[in-house]
Automatic annotation (TrEMBL):
Residues 54-283 form the ABC transmembrane type-2 domain. Residues 1-17 have a biased composition (Polar residues). It is found in: Cell membrane; Membrane. PANTHER family: NODULATION PROTEIN J. The lineage of its organism: Bacteria, Bacillati, Actinomycetota, Actinomycetes, Kitasatosporales. PROSITE patterns: ABC_TM2 (PS51012). Belongs to the ABC-2 integral membrane protein family. Pfam families: ABC2_membrane. This is Transport permease protein. Its main location: membrane. Residues 1-23 are annotated as: Disordered. The chain crosses the membrane at residues 56-78, 90-112, 133-161, 167-193, 258-278.
Length: 284
């Protein structure tokens, strides 16, 4: 009697999916982990400043130089000889907007330099959200902006600045300038990720900054400008921020300028933040 031996066919195993590589765009990062990563990266950026205090020179010296230069060189021409104190009250709220703009420009050059050094490439290999790298850098730069604004206000008080509203109005003006400055950082981050060199970032940024700064109500009243320039000034977001800060600090209309500033901030962030994060992922 013969027996039949049954040979079972080998069971084909479905190849398992390879594990996600560290730093893949598909890795899901929880909110708590994301905040922890942002905190760690922000601490790393602050330690860099501690190791290189010269990186704070622009935030410390720029407000001092600007306020002294414009008050004593242009104050008499703007408000008449001997009226420098009145010009200080007009100028300082406007310079708060200018501080945010100049600090934001430094973010773009810093991001570009980090890519040149290979720092960003190392971050992109880690299992962290791409946005956390950029947000951490922005948080530290907002801190530098706050330092520059504080020094500007101290110099303003020394030169005769007076707050006609309240301390809350002053704090609201500072907060509004920080919010707008943070939104501008997304523009310069995208610029830093797009341009090949830090010099190119600075060159393009200055082409944009100069018309925005001097074609605004930061340094002079729009009523002294030609009609076509007044029209540009009315829609200039720096003018909206400067006028809102003046209203909050020295009295006057606030609602329209403040709402326009917040609208600009939200609009810039909504458009530029996703573009900057996408460019950060794809940059080679």
């Amino acid at each position: 009697m013969s027996t039949t031996t049954t040979v079972e066919a080998p069971v084909q195993q479905t190849p398992s999916r390879p594990r996600q590589a560290a730093g893949s765009d598909d890795v899901r990062i929880g909110l708590r982990a994301n905040l922890r990563h942002i905190g760690a990266l922000a601490r790393r950026n602050m330690l860099q400043i501690k190791a290189d205090p010269e990186s704070m020179f622009d935030a410390v010296l720029m407000p001092i130089i600007f306020i002294l230069l414009f008050v004593y060189v242009f104050g008499g021409a703007m408000f008449g000889s001997g009226n420098q104190e009145a010009y200080v009250n007009y100028l300082v709220p406007g310079l708060m907007a200018m501080m945010g703009l100049n600090i934001a420009m430094a973010v773009g050059t810093g991001v570009n330099d980090d890519f040149k050094k290979g720092v960003m490439d190392r971050f992109r290999t880690m299992p962290i959200a791409r946005s956390s790298v950029l947000i951490a850098k922005m948080l530290v730069e907002v801190g530098r902006m706050l330092v520059a604004t504080t020094i500007l206000l101290i110099m303003g008080f020394i030169l005769g600045l007076s707050i006609s509203t309240s301390v809350w109005g002053l704090l609201a003006a500072v907060g509004l300038s920080l919010v707008f400055g943070a939104s501008l950082m997304w523009i310069f981050i995208l610029l830093g990720l797009t341009m090949k060199t830090a010099q190119a970032v600075q060159g393009v940024a200055m082409l944009v900054l100069m018309p925005l700064q001097f074609g605004s109500s930061i340094f002079a009243k729009p009523t002294t400008m030609p009609g076509w320039l007044q029209s540009f000034t009315d829609y200039n977001p720096l003018s909206n921020l400067a006028d809102a800060a003046r209203g909050l600090m020295t009295g006057g209309p606030v609602a329209h300028s403040a709402l326009m500033t917040l609208a600009w901030s939200v609009g810039i962030t909504a458009v530029m933040a996703p573009l900057a994060v996408a460019k950060f992922r794809k940059r080679t």
